Inverse folding.
């Protein structure tokens, strides 16, 4: 009877050994924390990855230690200057103390509910001491969003770690918006602003165009007056020159000059229809009446 | 085919198979050795050119970044290897209605951002990122993509809230992109997310439909201004040409030419 089972002893021993190994050794991944419990009572926490040992009668509870992102629903807050603003934030958190976490919270969903409470109250308190301009505003030195959030993160982290074993890594405002019921008036204001800017552009354009036209007119007047002056000067010069030429011609041969002048004046005065009645001793007739002697 | 040839072929097959049938006897030691060598050989693995790998021993990281090539790790259950496509760019949309629908966000916020001068604008931003440090990417965050989206959105919202609407829509778009990228990267480094943001691209930034026509009117007013000024310049030239003169010096040139 005994002999019949004896050959199974080594196999049984090996099985038992494997079982013992399985119960004693366990590996902890980088993404995990392990809480070793003895009959339900937490004994120690393992925060380091690798191969670990426990008594076979102890059991291991695994916790995900990775960063988690929690997005609370967007909610409306009131600033110090009594303005409403809708804020959607996100919270980056992780389990820091598995022992406290398992006792005070239990699971991630419960943790998020508690985080929501901590952060909501923290944020509404923080916003209550800030004006809207220090969160949304174009004056950079006035905007204090980062310091507000840093303070909130620190406070939330302290509270969450103490009460729930949670490490709040970061609280950030993901989206800012104005409450739905204010939006229509915001749109109206935006339109009014744009209309004003458009008007301003057009007015500026008109003004510029006007000044360009005025400038052109002024330049035109200037140029014309200069041109007129130049023309007058040139005319005067021309006259002077012609007088001089006439003078020269006269001094060369006065009688021929006189004849030429008289002929020229005939050409001017007489055509085929002219009937001239002149006194006989008129200068004009002298050449006609007396011939060459008349020119002298 | 006759039966004779068939018989011939079977006998031929028998003669060929004979040496194989004379294989060594199967003993437990030999089985064990064969199994052990197969087990040991199963630790050989290949990292493709576009991949990097992380090696863990009993869950503990012993090699945070293994480059492409042929490698060896102790087989299961001692070591395990996780391969990641590090070069591959992953795409993420922040803002924009489609992404919001997928995330199941309630309509009111949609893609709206508030600018510093309390205007509302709609934005849609595309983020491209890749794995920076494989070990961090794998083990630090539960959902790295969500972390990237949140970080980018937060930094974008903060920066939009400090600029006026004209800057966001036009002049400072590029600097907004750059600053957001740098700040979001800093944030992700603080989280040790092992992520590298390669680009942030503001795909669209538009005024809300409720006020869009007013914005368009400003643009056309700007065009009108340019037109009016150009007209005036043209009239000026013509009036000079009529008088056969050339404008000597223009004391006032059109300011707006855009």
């Amino acid at each position: 009877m005994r002999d019949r089972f004896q050959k199974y002893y080594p196999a049984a021993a090996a099985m038992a050994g494997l079982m013992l190994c399985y119960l004693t050794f366990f590996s902890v991944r980088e993404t995990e924390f392990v809480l070793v419990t003895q009959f339900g009572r937490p004994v120690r926490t393992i925060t380091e990855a690798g191969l670990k040992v426990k008594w076979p009668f102890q059991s291991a509870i695994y916790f995900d230690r990775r960063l988690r992102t929690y997005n609370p629903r967007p909610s409306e807050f009131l600033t110090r200057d009594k303005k409403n603003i809708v804020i959607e934030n996100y919270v980056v958190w992780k389990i820091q103390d598995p022992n406290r976490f398992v006792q005070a919270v239990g699971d991630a969903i419960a943790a998020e509910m508690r985080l929501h409470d901590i952060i909501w109250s923290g944020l509404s308190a923080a916003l209550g001491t800030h004006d809207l301009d220090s969160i949304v505003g174009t004056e950079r030195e006035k905007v204090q969003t980062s310091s507000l959030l840093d303070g909130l993160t620190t406070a939330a982290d302290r509270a969450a770690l103490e009460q729930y074993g949670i490490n709040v890594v970061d609280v950030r405002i993901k989206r800012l918006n104005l409450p739905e019921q204010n939006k229509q008036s915001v749109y109206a204001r935006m339109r009014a602003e744009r209309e004003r800017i458009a008007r301003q552009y057009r007015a500026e354009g008109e003004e510029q165009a006007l000044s360009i036209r005025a400038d052109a007119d002024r330049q035109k007047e200037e140029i014309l007056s200069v041109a007129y002056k130049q023309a007058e000067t040139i005319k005067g010069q021309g006259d002077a020159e012609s007088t001089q030429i006439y003078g020269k011609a006269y001094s060369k041969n006065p009688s021929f000059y006189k004849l030429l002048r008289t002929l020229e004046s005939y050409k001017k005065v007489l055509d085929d229809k002219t009937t001239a009645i002149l006194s006989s001793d008129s200068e004009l007739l002298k050449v006609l009446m007396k011939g060459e002697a008349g020119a002298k | 085919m006759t039966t004779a040839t068939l018989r011939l072929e079977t006998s031929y097959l028998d003669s060929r198979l004979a040496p194989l049938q004379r294989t060594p006897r199967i003993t437990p030691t030999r089985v064990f050795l064969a199994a052990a060598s197969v087990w040991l050989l199963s630790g050989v693995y290949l990292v493709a050119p576009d991949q990097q790998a992380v090696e863990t021993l009993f869950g503990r990281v012993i090699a945070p970044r293994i480059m492409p090539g042929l490698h060896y790790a102790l087989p299961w259950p001692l070591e395990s290897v996780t391969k990641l496509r590090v070069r591959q760019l992953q795409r993420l949309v922040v803002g924009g209605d489609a992404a919001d629908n997928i995330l199941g966000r309630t309509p009111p916020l949609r893609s709206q951002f508030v600018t510093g001068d309390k205007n509302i604008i709609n934005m849609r931003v595309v983020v491209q990122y890749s794995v920076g440090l494989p070990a961090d990417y794998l083990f630090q965050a539960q959902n790295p993509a969500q972390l990237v989206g949140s970080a980018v959105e937060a930094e974008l919202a903060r920066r939009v809230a400090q600029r006026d609407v004209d800057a966001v829509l036009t002049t400072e778009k590029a600097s907004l992109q750059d600053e957001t990228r740098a700040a979001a990267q800093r944030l992700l480094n603080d989280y040790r997310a092992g992520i590298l943001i390669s680009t942030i691209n503001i795909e669209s930034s538009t005024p809300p439909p409720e006020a869009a026509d007013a914005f368009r009117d400003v643009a056309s007013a700007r065009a009108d201004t340019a037109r009016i000024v150009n007209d005036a310049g043209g009239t000026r030239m013509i009036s000079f040409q009529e008088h056969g003169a050339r404008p000597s010096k223009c004391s006032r040139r059109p300011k707006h030419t855009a």
In short: The radius of gyration of chain A is 56 Å. Chain A has a mean pLDDT of 87. The longest strand of chain A covers residues 84-95. Chain A is about 55% helix and 20% strand.
